[in-house]
Write the structure tokens for this entry.
Amino acid sequence: MGIIIMIIVGGIIGWLASIVMRTDAQQGILLNVVVGIVGALIAGLVVGGNQIASGAFNLSSLLFSFLGAVVLLAIVNLFRRGTVR
């Protein structure tokens, strides 16, 4: 059951990050989920510990996951377009 919740939360975080980075029209639901989960994993590695992957859904872990997804989208945009929007 934890993996399903992580996919749903990752999808929401990825979708919100894609709205902030204005890439929502370029990617679909699947890429939103992937960006959210990978962003959460990146944030967990940077901050110290995999908080979302271990099942800790508190405000700080969600915020760091969102920031990780935004950073991931910025890096993808940098390589895709040559500049960060």
User: Anything to note?
Assistant: The mean pLDDT is 75.
